[in-house]
Amino acid sequence: MSSGLTDLLKTGFSMFMKVSRPHPSDHSLLILFVVGGVTISEAKMVKDLVSSLKPGTQVIVLSTRLLKPLNIPELLFATDRLHPDIGI
Prior knowledge:
alpha/beta; two-stranded parallel sheet; 3 helices; 4 strands
């Protein structure tokens, strides 16, 4: 019971004192998830940008699809994207 009271007092006093809390940018791992697809060059651009701005940070780029440069005009100008195939 005393350790619970001690923890409670520490938590209560930390509201009045300047206590540094962890921030998401303090971590050395960045996970980026792109919905819709990403090209290899875009993934490399993200990796290079993060390594130049914050050295030592590991980058993991995830995506729903790996795109080729030839897929991009098809995805932009396809007319059947308004009526997706729902498998019926």
